[in-house]
Amino acid sequence: MKEFIKTIKNIWSVEELKKRIIYTLLLILVYRIGSYVILPGINSDALVSNSSNDGGILGLINIFAGGAFGRVSVMSLGIMPYISASIVMQLLGLAVPAVQKMQREGESGRKKINRLTRYLTIVICVFQGISYLNMYAKPSVYAEFVDSPLWWVQSVVILTAGTMFVTWLGERITDRGVGNGVSLIIAIGILANLPMALLGEFGLKASNGGMVLLLVELVALYFVIILTVLLVQGTRRIPVHSAKRIVNQRGGRQAVSAAKRSFIPLKINQAGVMPIIFAQALMFLPAFIWRGFNDVAGFWYNLVFFILIVMFTYFYTAITMNPNQMADELKRSGAFIPGVKPGKNTAEFIDSLLSRLILPGSVFLGIIAILPAFAMNADINQGFAYFYGGTSLLIMVGVVLDTLQQVESYLLNSEYDGLMKGGRMRGRNVPNAPVSMPQTI
């Protein structure tokens, strides 16, 4: 406890870090206040008794939006349209030469891609806004002016503006705050549901005399979080050596630079939460074909969900990790893997390691994704069960670890001890790795 208090004091003694934390908290507060501002014309009293009880997939969407989706807030669509646009642009980069060219243009190309992503976000918001309003404003008890075309236009504009404002908040947090702003907003939205979900589970167990079961549930949740941390942090490091080089100095003199050692970090879960996001999007289709897929706690839903996650893990890793490109970059930089010849042999070596990592990683990811279904079948209420796995838990763990990493970097740069005893956090990517790894949500 003393070490924890000492770390908190160290954090507040670093002026820049303190300002960034306060700035981040203020923007998060703005986001949370905005999520409670109801869309004009919506009957909030009717929403409390009708729309707040959505379950299944709609309930999951509401969790990601921090409850704003069910409240029909001006920020109901949240950050997800921007995430969808980012995914589309990432996939276009694999097939469209023009996008590939922008990706190779460095900072200027990144700005162009960001601009196109925002335009695509607006288009997605318009379509999603119309569908969303049709769902919630169709019954006359929900909205007061649904017969007015002006109300529909202004509501779509407000929902689109709400999403773009949330996106702007995320970008400001990334630039001037602590952590990845977009991911942090999603995590805050998920965590906002935790107190009520926990209270609901506490009330349910208290009325049934099952407080011991509640304690068992909390212990089980603790171990699930530990396993998720292991999945997120698990890394296979490939050692890389850089050959000595002759460096020209001032005055025409030459010097030999020392050989450097680094490594290529290959994560067990290289695809992050993307396979779960893709699988959840695809699960909407069978739900229209057969009613059995509407039950998120059902056997067939989770069996197909698990298989899709394993398939998408292989697919996403294949399109984001190119062993041939990695081998070429190593060769051009004069680096090599000890005991492996540069070029084709290096590419085959990296590919074989990836193949051995993907299988256990995809299976483990699939198990974590369907754990909420097991929790629901164990008589845990749906709201609290979502915290036992799936995208919610993976995003929260990833965001917390990334934020702690940035805070610890500030502390170490200011000559303070890190957040973890013994210095830097384990399982972290090293900045001087010769091949940069793709970042996921």
TrEMBL record:
Keyword Cytoplasm found: no
Membrane topology according to the record: Multi-pass membrane protein
CC annotations in GO: plasma membrane
Major localization listed first in the record, in broad terms: membrane
Entry keyword Transmembrane: yes
Localisation: Cell membrane; Membrane
UniProt record, GO biological process: intracellular protein transmembrane transport; protein targeting; protein transport by the Sec complex
SUPFAM superfamilies the record matches: Preprotein translocase SecY subunit
Gene3D superfamilies: SecY subunit domain
Keywords of the record: Cell membrane, Membrane, Protein transport, Translocation, Transmembrane, Transmembrane helix, Transport
TM annotation in the entry: 21-42, 79-99, 119-137, 149-169, 181-199, 211-232, 271-293, 299-319, 357-378, 384-404
Functional note: The central subunit of the protein translocation channel SecYEG. Consists of two halves formed by TMs 1-5 and 6-10. These two domains form a lateral gate at the front which open onto the bilayer between TMs 2 and 7, and are clamped together by SecE at the back. The channel is closed by both a pore ring composed of hydrophobic SecY resides and a short helix (helix 2A) on the extracellular side of the membrane which forms a plug. The plug probably moves laterally to allow the channel to open. The ring and the pore may move independently.
Family: Belongs to the SecY/SEC61-alpha family.
Oligomer and partners: Component of the Sec protein translocase complex. Heterotrimer consisting of SecY, SecE and SecG subunits. The heterotrimers can form oligomers, although 1 heterotrimer is thought to be able to translocate proteins. Interacts with the ribosome. Interacts with SecDF, and other proteins may be involved. Interacts with SecA.
NCBIfam families according to UniProt: 3a0501s007 (TIGR00967)
Designated name of the protein: Protein translocase subunit SecY
Naturally occurring in which organism (per UniProt): Parvicella tangerina
Gene that specifies this protein: secY
